[in-house]
Structures are given as C-alpha cells and as structure tokens.
Amino acid sequence: MGKKTRNRAAATATAGENPRRPCPCGSGKRYKACHGAGDDVIVVRPFEGLAAEPDLVAMREFLPSATAALPVRAGGPVTLASVLPGASAALVRDDGQVLLGMQVQTRSGDLSTDLAGALAWARSAEPGSSLPVVGPDRRTSERLQDVLEPDTPLEPTVHADFAWWLPGGEPDPEAAAMLERANSVIMPTEAVTGPGVRGAYWVDAGSKAHLRWVRTEDETTLMAALARLSDQDGLELGEGSRYAGSFRAHGLLVPVWDLDREMHSSEWVGPAVAFAKRLDEAVAGLAEKPLTDGEHRAREVLAGKQITLR
After folding, report:
1. Separation CA 277–CA 5 (nearest Å)
2. How far apart are the C-alpha atoms of 157 and 245, rounded to whole Å?
3. What is the share, in percent, of the chain residues with pLDDT greater than 70?
4. Nearest CA to 89 among 51, 42, 48, 129?
5. pLDDT band with cut points at 50, 70 and 90 for residue 157
6. Contact of 128 with 33, CB cutoff 8 Å
7. Mutual orientation of helices 269-285 and 219-231 as an angle, nearest 10°?
8. Is residue 57 within a helix (H) or strand (E), and if so which, with residue range?
9. pLDDT-based confidence at 13, cuts 50/70/90?
C-alpha cells in the first residue's frame, strides 16, 4: 500500500465487494464505471480538520456565486470561488490573481487533493491561462490540509450575480451572453451568521425559501441531539419554519428548514442563534442522559428524511 493511501485510510470508504452498487463519491454512476475503474481511494470527508470545512462544503454544493480569500500558509493571495467561467478548476488573471473553483468535474476520490493540485498549477501558470480540470498529471501528494492555515475559517462573500467573473470594462457580446446565462439560474442566497452560527445559508428557491446549515458534529451525535429537540418540539426555527430533513455532503450532515418566503433572511438570525444554543445544550446532555424511547422513535423519523449528495 502506498504512503498516500495509508495516510487516508482512516477517512475513506469504498464500495465493498459489489462493483454494481452506486459509487460512494455521489456521481450516480455504478462503482465499477466510476472510481472502481482504478485504484483511487474515496475520501468521504475531504476537508476534515480545517476550520474552513463547513464553508468549503457550502461553496462546493449549494452556494451559486460566492468568493472567499483562501487562508494559504505561504505564497501570494488566492481567491476561492464557488464556480469559475467554464467550470474551470483554476485560472490566473492577466494581473496575476489566482482563483480556484470549487464546483468542478473530477474523477478523483479526494477533492482536497484536487484543489491542492489546482493551486500548485496556478502558482506556476502564465497570466491569462486556465485549467479546465485536475487530471492525474496535475495531482500532487499535498492536500488542502497541507497548504492552508487549519484554524482559519473562510469568510465567503455571496454575490447577487457573476459580474466578478469579468472585472473592469464592458464585456464583449460573447462574454455578456455567458454572464446572462449564468445569472439567470442564480437563486438569491444570503449567509445567516451570529453567535454560534456558522455555515448557515438562506436561499430563495422560488416557491419557498430554505435554510441550509452545514454542521460539523459527528453524524451519530448530531442525529441524537436533533431527535431530542424534535421530541421536545424544539426542532423548528420558530413561526414560519418547518424542519424538512437533511442531506449528507462530503462527510457532513446538512439540516434543512423550509421557511416563510415573505420573511427577509436577516429575520432568521435570531431564531438560528437560539436554535444553535438549544442544539449545543442537547449535544452536551447526551453524555449524561441517553435517548428515551420517544427520542429513539424521533430519531428514526428524522433518519427517514436523509439523503446523500456526496
């Protein structure tokens, strides 16, 4: 077993003995037609150990147009983006600015390695160039955990459109058409932040609004705490909200609430802060008091509202 594989063993999962089952990477393909085609190891939680983990997951999975300064340990500044023109893995602007894309196509089993590979390419690339995808020839032994400040979170800026793709000047007709197409599919999104609240985002999906909240707790612990709150009628965010379920993304659980679309995103800050306090208390109480029969039943109901994205 190679060193790279050994180092990842504790954070990986494979498809077992059945090559016909869905690939654990979430592509929707059968394992034998995806990562089972080679010896790549699938890292289920690629950003584990980084304070930036919840926002990395959000930028990868559901933030439409967002940028953030990447807290690199060395080298010049790097901007992380939810998506770049052409879904590129990286690009270097004419002025030398480096941008990395989160929402990219990849066959690798470790998104952290892919991002580190894209960064390594960008630091040696010529201004005005772009990297469509991180192929095997661009991957290195480094991961994001090797190049980022581990205790520094991201501070994403959520944009209303993709105008930041083409800074300065009037775009030519082709670029203007590209922007118009990209902007037409954006769902209005805002960060919901406050004491104890991180990785939570309000989104207007058209017919209703949602709050999606990336949590970093162990799934077993988080589900038990949510079940306790549910049994106590404390799972909602308040009037105009309904707990809809949760999805798994890159090893983390993301609870989702349906919200009253008429209420502004800022009106959910207070309820989110209050819920975060209730959840912390529920988590702390699990060590002293195991789940009751009613809470176990509530957990089974919540488990039936889960899906896996990655």
Report:
1. 39
2. 26
3. 85
4. 129
5. very high
6. no
7. 110
8. helix 53-61
9. very low
Residue pLDDT, tens place only, 126-148: 999 999 998 887 778 899 999 99
Pairing between β-strand 78-81 and β-strand 98-101 as defined by DSSP bridges: parallel
pLDDT recorded at residue 176: 86
Q: Name the residue type at position 43.
A: V
Q: Which residue has the tokens 């959000």?
A: 58
Helix, strand, or coil here: 191? Answer: strand
Distances (CA, A) of 148 to 61, 77, 111, 130, 280: 20, 12, 14, 22, 28
Residue range 161-189: mean pLDDT, rounded? 87
Q: 5: helix, coil or strand?
A: helix
* Chain center to CA of 295: 29
Q: Which two tokens stand for residue 182?
A: 């990209």
CA-to-CA dists, residue 163 to 67, 100, 169, 177, 196, angstroms: 12, 17, 11, 12, 32
183's CB contacts (< 8 A; 6+ apart) are 161, 162
The alpha carbon of residue 28 and the mean position of all alpha carbons in its chain are separated, in whole angstroms, by: 18
SS3 308: strand
Indicate the pairing of strand 78-81 with strand 66-69: antiparallel
Where helices occur in 125-240 by DSSP H, the ranges are 144-147, 173-184, 219-231
Alpha-carbon span 65 to 183, nearest angstrom? 9
The per-residue pLDDT for range 48-62, each reduced to its tens digit, is: 999 999 999 999 999
